[in-house]
Design goal:
The chain is of the alpha+beta class. Among the domains are: about 70-165 and about 185-220 and about 415-465, no CATH class; about 235-295 and about 305-405, Alpha-Beta Plaits. It is about 55% helix and about 10% strand. The chain has 26 helices and nine strands. About 50% of the residues are buried. The model is unreliable at about 1-10, about 225-230 and about 315-325 (pLDDT under 50). InterPro entries: Cit_transptr-like_dom, DASS-Related_Transporters, RCK_C, RCK_C_sf. This is TrkA domain-containing protein. Its main location: membrane.
């Protein structure tokens, strides 16, 4: 009998050693990234299944990550986010945020943290991040700020803000239920709000000071389409209509609202050029602005109701019968073409080809005269609104090179109330615990398509599939940790530590252990696994079990050290161009700080 028991325990130990070995390999692959980490995660699944006798991961469990609620929730959230973005609602919110922050990176971070953290307390933090990712990316884009500097703070703030109330994050609800069953004490709506405020404030201060220095600029503002249309310095001319929101604003105020990559060069008023003391010059109706900007911003401005391009859009011309033939194109005037000697102006170009020039890019020189009177030169790049017939002319004319057709953003503004209502319903139904968030999110995704907020073909481009494969790939590793008892083994290894360190220090260690386990398995699984252990440990030590319940709840809901620890981290991972180690560098110091703050807070508010 003793021999059998010994063999049994040796088998268990072998299982645990195998899982720890796979975990170590996974960590090395994720950290060094010799191959994309989503592919590494899929490889880990294969290894787990091949080693099933030790890992307890069957083929069915191996692929279960693709149907896991966390994976499907993240997938649906990408589509919900796309629906909000396509309607232009994010653009409107971004305009208001831009007016508050300007191009100050610290102010942008502070606004992002405040908005995400405050909102996540009353709306589940996953849809909060889904909704704010497009807004934050757009804000970064318009102000030449690296999105990398804003997206980690967005995810972290939403996580920490989720601890303000019971409904802020799903693990809180699960922890409340388990706590009620184990110790007869569930959470009220604002049970731990005072601790949540302390945690959020700590995280915000860290992110705005130390974290700001540690977050890398992985995506340069100019990286995405360097050398392409979007990054060329175009000069354009617009009129300020009488009903424009820019009327009575100064040039400096307008520059802040339009973004850092817009430089107003001249104001044209009643045939006169105004260029002195531009910053303080007040804009009047029908003034014309000559400005220089990136092509990306220029495209956005073509849809603005507050600006009218001096060149009349082709869509307003009476001789155009098929609006579908219209397109924005880049036309390059070849060096030293015959027409250059003819001194063709932009106005004459429009007359000849029936295509107004909205902007001109001239290498090495800044245009300062009215666009319509500018003489075209070889090497100029023109942003032209043209018909299909005109484009055929450009292709046949040796003087021109038709570089590319540009897609102008077309927001479905009439769908804004629908898209916002869908997201509100998704959040409300999940918050009231009528249906799980995975079901409401999938229903919301279908609703976005059915109502036309997102077109069917846009669904697949909205999803960041590398994130989905990464999440689906690491979930079976967590299952193996649970099935083999590896996670429980880790938890009980620290219990003897309570005999040699103060109880408050032990609470900090238990917090860190829970966060480490949460990085490997899902936060919900971590809560389900660690809460019973926490109650047993507290009982054995003669401590208050509720304090240990709280430490597990906070630790499992604020997993900051890797992109795979929490789904909001995965949602910003690709958008910010991050590497796996970026979360370690930024998240580990904050996690250690929160271990102290959370433990001390529990000690002060509830005792141990």
């Amino acid at each position: 009998m003793d021999v059998l028991l010994s063999a049994h325990f040796l088998a268990i130990e072998a299982d645990i050693l195998v899982v720890f070995g796979i975990l170590f390999i996974a960590f090395v692959l994720f950290t060094l990234e010799p191959i994309p980490i989503d592919m590494a995660a899929i490889g880990i699944v294969v290894v787990l299944v091949v080693l099933e006798p030790w890992t307890q991961v069957t083929p069915e469990l191996g692929i279960s990550g693709f149907s896991n609620p966390a994976t499907l929730t993240v997938l649906a959230m990408f589509v919900l986010s796309e629906g909000i973005q396509r309607t232009g609602a994010i653009r409107i919110l971004g305009d208001r945020l831009l007016a508050l922050t300007g191009d100050d990176e610290r102010k942008q971070q502070a606004a992002t943290i405040g908005l995400a953290g405050g909102t996540a307390g009353f709306i589940n933090n996953t849809p909060v991040v889904a909704m704010l990712i497009p807004m934050v990316s757009d804000l970064a884009d318009r102000t030449n700020t690296s999105p990398s500097k804003l997206l980690i703070p967005l995810s972290y703030a939403a996580m920490l803000g989720g601890m303000l109330t019971l409904i802020g994050t799903s693990p809180n609800l699960l922890a409340s239920d388990i706590s009620g069953r184990l110790i007869g004490r569930s959470f009220s709506m604002f049970e731990f709000t005072q601790l949540g405020v302390l945690v959020l404030a700590t995280g915000a201060i860290y992110l705005l000071t130390i974290g700001h220095r540690l977050i890398p600029e992985r995506v340069s503002p100019d990286d995405e389409l360097a050398g392409q249309f979007q990054l060329r310095g175009y000069v354009s001319e617009v009129t300020i209509p009488a009903n424009s929101r820019f009327v009575d604003d100064t040039v400096g105020e307008i520059s802040i609202q339009l973004g850092r990559d817009v430089e107003i060069l001249r104001v044209l008023r009643r045939g006169k050029v105004v260029h002195r003391d531009l910053e303080n010059r007040t804009i009047r109706p029908n003034d014309r602005l000559l400005f220089r900007s990136s092509g990306r911003t220029l495209l956005d401005l073509t849809t603005s109701r507050d600006l009218e391009f001096a060149a009349a859009p082709v869509t307003e011309a009476s001789d155009v019968t098929d609006a579908d033939e219209l397109a924005l194109v880049e036309v390059i005037l070849v060096p030293e073409p015959p027409i250059a000697g003819e001194s063709m102006t932009a106005r004459e170009f429009e007359r000849q080809f029936g295509s107004p020039i909205l902007a001109i890019h001239r290498q090495g020189e800044r245009l300062k005269q009215r666009l319509s009177t500018a003489v075209l030169r070889g090497g100029d790049t023109l942003l032209v609104q043209s018909t299909k017939e005109a484009r055929e002319q450009f292709m046949a004319d040796p003087n021109f090179v038709l570089a590319q057709e540009i897609e102008r953003p077309e927001y479905r503004r009439s769908k804004i109330p629908i898209a916002v209502s869908i997201v509100a319903l998704v959040v409300s139904v999940a918050a009231l615990d009528i249906l799980p968030i995975v079901i409401t999110a999938l229903a919301g995704m279908a609703g976005m398509v059915i109502t036309g907020c997102v077109k069917p073909e846009e669904v697949y481009t909205a999803v960041e599939w590398n994130v989905i494969f990464l999440l689906a790939g690491v979930i079976p590793l967590g299952i193996s940790m649970e099935e083999t008892g590896a996670a429980e083994y880790l938890a009980y290894q620290i219990t003897p530590l309570a005999d040699v360190v103060p109880l408050l220090v032990f609470l900090m260690v238990f917090y860190l252990l829970t966060t480490i386990i949460t990085e490997i398995i899902t936060n919900l699984a971590s809560v389900a696994l660690m809460l019973p252990i926490a109650v047993d440990v507290a009982t054995e030590l003669g401590s208050d079990p509720f304090s240990f319940v709280l430490i597990v709840t906070f630790a499992a809901s604020t997993s900051l050290m890797t992109p795979i620890g929490y789904q909001t981290n995965l949602m910003v991972y690709g958008r910010g161009g991050y590497e796996f180690t970026d979360f370690i560098r930024v998240g580990v110091p904050l996690q250690l700080l929160l271990a102290v703050v959370t433990s001390v807070g529990i000690y002060v508010f509830w005792g141990v």
